Every structure is written in structure tokens, then in C-alpha cells.
């Protein structure tokens, strides 16, 4: 019997809708931010944009990965039929609730938006109970923090008209996940080595990894509450600087130069490089560089690191990622590079506001092109799998 594809498994629709929504939110936000359109929403352009990326796109991708991997981890079939349809429906309802927020009470908008992450948390909790797998517990913790961050986001919107701590908490939770689970990079590189023949082994975990994790988590905690003056600006800056340098050292220790030449390794390394870059930009902001560097750090982490790694996870899950990592084609490499270039353009726009009218549309166009192209490729592949013309690889 052929193993199920990600399109036939429960995660396929969420991978597709997550990619489509990532493209759609940029297509709406860029002209809205530039004043070319004015949708009737209770949220500002930046607040809606942040909410739909952190609490719309990212949970959909996490859900797609969870539902695709569930059969191999638990031995139980993924959701299908009406349970899958209902799960997808509550995700869509959350998006429609935000779109119609001008006509709804804030409490109603918040409850509609929270339906999907709570349902996904229940699915992740069931998987953890079935497997008792530590990695599943990490996902469960991240989803729990995201639910709390989303609730805080809506409370801040209701009380103050904008969210600071809810947004930062969500970004920090996702970054903490990447910091703690950074073994994804050696794993992909290792897959390339096995596929291409013997080569020197990866550098094992050491004190550098421990220092990078500890300083990274501590610095993210300080970054969330930096407005409260928990530490003075210079101490906060020093901590963020130390976290950035140790993250860079950790990334360098992965030594992709020792692996066979492979685009799949290079594009993921480029995405991971935005993590230390964000810490260094945030450090410079605390050390006197100005608020523009805080905005640049936020976009390095969200568009560069979270967006780039999310796209990598999307691509690997859609194809099926057990065993050796799949070779990246020129097109998929171009998609990843487009996301990295979009992040660089957005960072440059934060640091050079005079070129906003050029750099923001450029960043948006690159982002849209990347995720829309992935969605088209995934939809085409899903159709070919459904017709039986392609035998898919087995997902994790």
C-alpha cells in the first residue's frame, strides 16, 4: 500500500491555505499601508498584518505539519471528512472575523479568532497523550503560549487600540521554538550527506549550544518587557548583543561548507541567519540606535527567520520529508531566496524611511511571489498525487 501523501493526509489543506493566506495578507497590507485602499476594519493595517501572520498563517502551517506527521507518530489516521472540514472551517471563520471586525464586538472577534488555535491545541494534546514524545510536548507548549499571546493581543486591542506585549510574546514563542529546536539545520544537512555520500560529521552539541539557548531565551524574555524597564537600556542591549553573537557562533558551528554542495542547506541557513541578525539589531536599538532598529529587528525575526523557516517546513512537509532531504530545485531555491530578499527589503525600509514607497512594495511583491508560487506548486503536486501519477514520499 502506498503511504499517504500530505495532500491526502489531514495537513494538506492547511499547507495550501497557509501559503495562500501568507500571499493574500501582503497583497492587502501593502496598498493599505501606503494609503491606496482603506478596508473597514477595527484594526490598524500593522495590527491586522501582525495578527494574520502570527495567529493565522503560522498556526495553519503548524497545523498542516502536525496533521501530516500524526499518522507516523501515533499510528492513527489523520483527521478526514467532516472533522477536517470543521477544523478548516474554524480557521476560515477566524480570518473572516478579523475582516469584519468593524461590524462585530471586540469580544466576538477575539472568540472567533481563538477557535482554531484552541482546536489545534486539543489535537496536539491528543497526539502528546498518544505518544508521550518530548518533541510533541514542545509543540504543545508553543501552541499554548500562542493561544495566550493571541488572547493578550485582543485584550490590548480592546483596551489600547494596539498590541505590544501580545505581538512580542507570539514572536518570542516562535523564536524560542526555533532556538530550542535548531537541530533542524544539522538534520537537513545530515540528510544531504547521506544522500550524497560520506563526509565529515556535524560538530556535536557543546557549551556553545547551551549558551546560545540560555542567552537567547533570556534575551527574548527581556525583549518582551523591555518597555517596563526591567533592565536599563545598556544592560538589555548587552544581553541582546551576547545572544546575537552566540546564535551566530552556533550557526557557524553547523559547518554547511563541510557538507556536499546543496541548495536545501544553503537556503535554510540563510533563514536561520536572520535570528542572530534580529538580536543584533535589537541590541543596537537598546544601545542608542533608535526605534527604527527595533522595527528592523522585528521584521528580521518575522519575515526573515519565521517566514523563511516556515516556507522550508511547508516545502518539506508537502513533498514528504522522511529519509534524505529532497534536492531543492532552482525554482524552490528561488522561492526561498525571494523570502530572504523580501525580509532584507523590509528591514531596509525600517532603517531608511525615505525609501519606504520603493522598498515596501518590493518586499511585498517578493513575498507574494514566493508564497503564491509555492501554493501553485503544492496544488499541482496534490492534484498529481490524487490522480495517482506521482507516488509521494512518506511524511515524518
Key features?
disordered C terminus, mainly alpha, transmembrane helix, 0% strand, transmembrane, globular, Cytochrome C Oxidase, Chain A, NnrS, membrane, 13 helices, plasmid, 396 residues
Structure description:
- It comes from Azospirillum baldaniorum.
- The structure is a single chain.
- The protein is mainly α and 396 residues long.
- The protein has one domain: Cytochrome C Oxidase, Chain A.
- 76% of the residues lie in helices and 0% in strands.
- It is built from 13 helices and no strands.
- It starts with 11 loop residues before the first helix and ends in a 9-residue tail after the last helix.
Going by CATH, the homologous superfamily would be Cytochrome c oxidase-like, subunit I domain
DSSP strand tally: 0
Ends distance: 17 Å
Order of helices and strands: HHHHHHHHHHHHH
**Count of DSSP helices?**
13
Strand content: under 5%
The portion of residues assigned to helices is over 70%
Overall body shape: globular
Name the CATH class.
Mainly Alpha
Biggest sheet details? none
- Mean model confidence by pLDDT: 82
* Helix/strand/pairing category: mainly alpha
- Please name the CATH architecture: Up-down Bundle
Please give the domain count. Answer: 1
What is the gyration radius calculated from CA atoms? Answer: 20 Å
CATH topology: Cytochrome C Oxidase, Chain A
Pfam family, one: NnrS
Transmembrane segments: 12-33, 53-70, 82-101, 107-125, 137-155, 167-189, 266-286, 298-319, 331-351, 357-377
Keywords: Membrane, Plasmid, Transmembrane, Transmembrane helix
Protein name: Membrane protein, NnrS-like
Amino acid at each position: 500500500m502506498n503511504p499517504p501523501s500530505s495532500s491526502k493526509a489531514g495537513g494538506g489543506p492547511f499547507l495550501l491555505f497557509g501559503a495562500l493566506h501568507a500571499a493574500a495578507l501582503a497583497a492587502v497590507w501593502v496598498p493599505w499601508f501606503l494609503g491606496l485602499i482603506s478596508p473597514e476594519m477595527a484594526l490598524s493595517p500593522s495590527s491586522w498584518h501582525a495578527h494574520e501572520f502570527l495567529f493565522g498563517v503560522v498556526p495553519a502551517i503548524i497545523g498542516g505539519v502536525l496533521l501530516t506527521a500524526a499518522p507516523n507518530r501515533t499510528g492513527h489516521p489523520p483527521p478526514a471528512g467532516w472533522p477536517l472540514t470543521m477544523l478548516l472551517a474554524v480557521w476560515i471563520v477566524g480570518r473572516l472575523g478579523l475582516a469584519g471586525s468593524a461590524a462585530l464586538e471586540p469580544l466576538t472577534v477575539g472568540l472567533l479568532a481563538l477557535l482554531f488555535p484552541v482546536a489545534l491545541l486539543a489535537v496536539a494534546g491528543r497526539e502528546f497523550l498518544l505518544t508521550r514524545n518530548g518533541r510533541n510536548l514542545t509543540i504543545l507548549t508553543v501552541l499554548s503560549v500562542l493561544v495566550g499571546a493571541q488572547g493578550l493581543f485582543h485584550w490590548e486591542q480592546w483596551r489600547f487600540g494596539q498590541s505590544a506585549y501580545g505581538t512580542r510574546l507570539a514572536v518570542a514563542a516562535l523564536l524560542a521554538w526555533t532556538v530550542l529546536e535548531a537541530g533542524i539545520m544539522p538534520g537537513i544537512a545530515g540528510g544531504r550527506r547521506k544522500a550524497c555520500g560520506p563526509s565529515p560529521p556535524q560538530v556535536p552539541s557543546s557549551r556553545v549550544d547551551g549558551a546560545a539557548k540560555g542567552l537567547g531565551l533570556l534575551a527574548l524574555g527581556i525583549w518582551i518587557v523591555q518597555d517596563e524597564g526591567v533592565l536599563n537600556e545598556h544592560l538589555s542591549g548587552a544581553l541582546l548583543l551576547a545572544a546575537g553573537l552566540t546564535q551566530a557562533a552556533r550557526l557557524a558551528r553547523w559547518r554547511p561548507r563541510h557538507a556536499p554542495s546543496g541548495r536545501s542547506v544553503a537556503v535554510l541557513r540563510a533563514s536561520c541567519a536572520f535570528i542572530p541578525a534580529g538580536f543584533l539589531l535589537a541590541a543596537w536599538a537598546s544601545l542608542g540606535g533608535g526605534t527604527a532598529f527595533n522595527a528592523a529587528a522585528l521584521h528580521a525575526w518575522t519575515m526573515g527567520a519565521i517566514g523563511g523557516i516556515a516556507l522550508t517546513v511547508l516545502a518539506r512537509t508537502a513533498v514528504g520529508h522522511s529519509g534524505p532531504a529532497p534536492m531543492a530545485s532552482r525554482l524552490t531555491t528561488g522561492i526561498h531566496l525571494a523570502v530572504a530578499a523580501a525580509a532584507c527589503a523590509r528591514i531596509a525600509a525600517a532603517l531608511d524611511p525615505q525609501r519606504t514607497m520603493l522598498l515596501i512594495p518590493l518586499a511585498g511583491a517578493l513575498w507574494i511571489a514566493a508564497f503564491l508560487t509555492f501554493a501553485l506548486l503544492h496544488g499541482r503536486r496534490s492534484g498529481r498525487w490524487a490522480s495517482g501519477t506521482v507516488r509521494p514520499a512518506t511524511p515524518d
